Amino acid sequence: MQPIHSIQVLRALAAFMVAVHHVQPDAAIVAARAGLPFARSDLLPWMAGVDIFFVVSGFIMVHASRELFGRQGAAPTFLKRRLARIVPLYWAMTSLFLLAGLAMPAALNSGVPGLGQILASYLFWPAVSTQGVVQPVYSLGWTLNYEMLFYGLFAAGLMLPGRWTLPAVALVLAVLVGAEGLTGPLPLPFGFWGQPIVLEFAAGMGIAVLRQRGLRLHGLSRVAIAAAGIAVLLAAARGGEGADGWSLVLWRGGAAVLLVLAAACGREGIVPVRPVRALAAVGDASYALYLVHPFVIRGLREAMLRAGLAWPHLYVTLALAGAVLAALLLHRGLERPATRLMRRWLGN
Prior knowledge:
Blueprint: H1 5-34, H2 48-64, H3 74-103, H4 115-122, H5 142-157, H6 162-183, H7 190-193, H8 199-212, H9 219-240, H10 245-264, H11 274-284, H12 286-307, H13 312-346
Helix pairs in contact: 1-2, 1-10, 1-11, 1-12, 1-13, 2-5, 2-8, 2-10, 3-5, 3-12, 3-13, 5-6, 6-8, 8-10, 9-10, 12-13
């Protein structure tokens, strides 16, 4: 299936936003070492990149799997595809993180994980960390715990008649969120799975349905919807959003829905210009960018401090550029070959 370039561009921007969020505390450390001022940028709520990822994920699962609906054996086929796509790189980054923790424990921001947390991390199962929060050993994997929930529900939905797949998935997500909200904190894993952010997957599925039914945005309407999404993000960064899960989802998730709608429901058949193709290539490597950027950020911070180059703005520029370059190399050199190998091993 041909990729939608605007969706790939949006994936690139989402991963880059998360990287911007994570580079700033390290830049503050670099600045403090030299006694220089450093004011973090709050132009956007940078972690809204995760919300964009979740809406995009809901869209892509429907868009890329529509030939599976109502087909016998669809559920295992879907799961094999998703496992081959997600597992190799995440397991590699988790293992690298554990090795780095053994070699340089002072460079990490977390305590020594227990065996239970390590096993839960590799199995994408929500577990309490040594810091008392529900996250895997490699903390970025919290989003993948949600993704795996969504994939499991989607695979189960594929065992139903095709017309019931999406309503059933959306209903289960809504029931999880409703149960957590109405009855108070649920035990793990349901308390983790029942957070409002999972509804963003359902929103992405809805956008895919609209596209399949022929919705196309042209000209000013598409620009206006994208501009509205950016405006919501800007408003959220200036204090519009609250701290609770519902407020975050309404602001960040609402902006993500608008941006994905504009990206997914545009005209087809337009040859993208060179900058769009370049960003789409980064979008292809967005999973690698999401997982590898903390290693680049922390590694470069230590290298610059030891070299006496405590210039925060140079550090931010080099860290973000290095993260993108590392992601492109990792995508080509490890992610794609490992995905192909695992698909062959799974017989898919």
